[in-house]
Specification:
By secondary structure, the chain is of the alpha/beta class. Helix content is about 45%, strand content about 20%.
Amino acid sequence: MVIHTIKSLLKKGADILKKSAADTPILDSEILLAYALGCSREKLIIDWEEQIADSIVRRYLDFIKMRAAGKPVQYITGHQEFMGLDFFVGEGVLIPRPDTEITVLKVLELLKSSKGIPKIADLCTGSGAIGVSLSYYIEDSFIYAVDISKVALEYCENNAINNNVLDKMKILNGDLAKPLFVEGLAGELDVLVSNPPYISKREMAELPGSVRYYEPHLALFGGEIGLDFYEKILKDAPILLKKDGILIFEIGYNQGEAIKRMIEKTGCFTDIKIEKDLAGLDRCVFCYLKE
């Protein structure tokens, strides 16, 4: 009879994942064992030599097989941390990325000295990563979270409930800005923020399997060159925003100048700036509706 300890199981899981070419085999094995045990990763280190029951071993190795086949860790555990908050995720909704925190932090910075209760619309909200985070960190705010995917909005609602902000949000199903017009929000928004699908046709073919085969293409594909959704949102943004209201987009690493030109072409916005991430790559563009 084989006796498994935390230490031996972590090694076994990491070895399997290394052979599958997983990017972070050790980290993945730790997260999945902690999930199987219902404990923190810190406990794994503290109780390194603890023996594990056979039922947990089987459960853990099932998770490892799923990960080795390419399934994202977040879809196995059903969770992803974002902005220090816990988000439910699963197949049918995009996994929040740390890069998107830059957009959230920029909105928080731009609204730091605002007065009253800002009305903010989050288009293509997905799991609600942006909208829920803004609602959580801006005490006086109201967020309209919009997505065309009903599956994504179920996650968004659950994440709003989980983070105790549902009473500060309205979750709307529909195509981009259309639900906002139905709500009578023309000229009412202080901020319009969006992390729309922006992966180009060429880039879609180059995505790693864990993204290409598992995450929803509806939330990824932005048209031939990845700019389709920006163009659509830019037609409605000047109508929805208040004068001097903020428009902010998350963007692809190489899209900053192209989107800046698109915004300039509307003639409606001023102070257009590109924000870069810590690697020096384009990450978001923000600007203000002209007075």
